[in-house]
Design goal:
- It contains 10 helices and no strands.
- It is an all-alpha fold and 276 residues long.
- It is elongated and about 60 Å long.
């Protein structure tokens, strides 16, 4: 198998998601995920964002903004606050790339080939998400590695850290459905990126990822409290640092994850079937 071709398991022509069994669905997802992974192998430069972005983010926000927020000489406080927040942010940045990739595949005719195959339509999109989750986990591992170098302490324990990573991954996967739907709805990858940035910037910087909400103006503090990224950052921070409320932000984040997935996944699959 090459990166350009996928041999789908034989099923009846015209079969759709509802007529394909779970085992066949998983087989299709595995084959398509392997195809996407082979594409990355043939184009290593596509991993540059995953390999370099965590390093750039942690150095930039810890050393540039950390001193202004926590005071000069308090790098330890900055690292403990920033790293869990940046971990929450990584999923959103990687999710944006999924939408651009889906749009580009349609422009190249790759998706048209997939839609002529007797495979579940959802498996094409789920395979994309599976590979992007792998990229997200690599980025998170690099981020945590840099955090440990700068003095990050996992005060909540290893299981709490794994819980924070799992929570960030689940939320990031939900966001991918939004950007896949966006990628299927606009004409060019540039349009996907432009519209995504309009969403990313206020959500990222109007959150508790980089600064405590108490330091913000009243109107912005109110927005920060309802921002789902703030709940994710607060949950990750509480789990990693072993202090602060955990249950509330975790439940809110899981609620957002379920709602986003339940709404956007069916819409994305339907759009994929009908897109011309």
């Amino acid at each position: 198998m090459t990166a350009a071709t996928v041999t789908a398991p034989a099923v009846k022509p015209g079969a759709d998601d509802g007529r394909i069994g779970l085992r066949a669905n998983l087989r299709h997802i595995g084959a398509l995920a392997r195809r996407n992974a082979l594409q990355i192998k043939q184009d290593p430069q596509s991993m540059m964002d995953v390999l370099l972005a965590p390093v750039i983010f942690i150095l930039l926000f810890v050393y540039v903004f950390g001193g202004a927020i926590f005071g000069k000489g308090h790098q330890d406080l900055s690292v403990q606050y920033m790293v869990p927040g940046i971990m929450a942010m990584m999923g959103m940045n990687i999710a944006m790339a999924v939408g651009s990739g889906v749009n580009e595949d349609f422009r190249k005719g790759v998706m048209d080939r997939f839609r002529t195959m007797p495979i579940a339509r959802s498996s094409v999109l789920i395979a994309k998400i599976v590979v992007e989750i792998g990229r997200m986990l690599i980025a998170t591992a690099i981020l945590l590695g840099m955090g440990f170098v700068l003095g990050l302490e996992i005060k909540g324990g290893v299981l709490a850290l794994l819980g924070a990573v799992a929570l960030a991954t689940a939320f990031g996967a939900a966001l991918m459905w939004i950007f896949i739907l966006l990628g299927l709805s606009v004409q060019t990858p540039q349009a996907v990126q432009g519209m995504a940035m309009l969403v990313l910037m206020p959500l990222q910087f109007g959150s508790s990822i980089f600064a405590p909400p108490a330091s913000m103006p009243g109107w912005l503090e109110g927005f920060t409290k309802v921002n789902p990224l703030s709940n994710l950052a607060d949950a990750s921070r509480a789990l990693v640092n072993g202090q602060g409320a955990v249950a509330h932000p975790v439940l809110i984040t899981l609620g957002w994850t379920v709602v986003i997935t339940a709404v956007t996944m069916p819409l994305a699959v339907a759009k994929f079937r009908k897109k011309t």
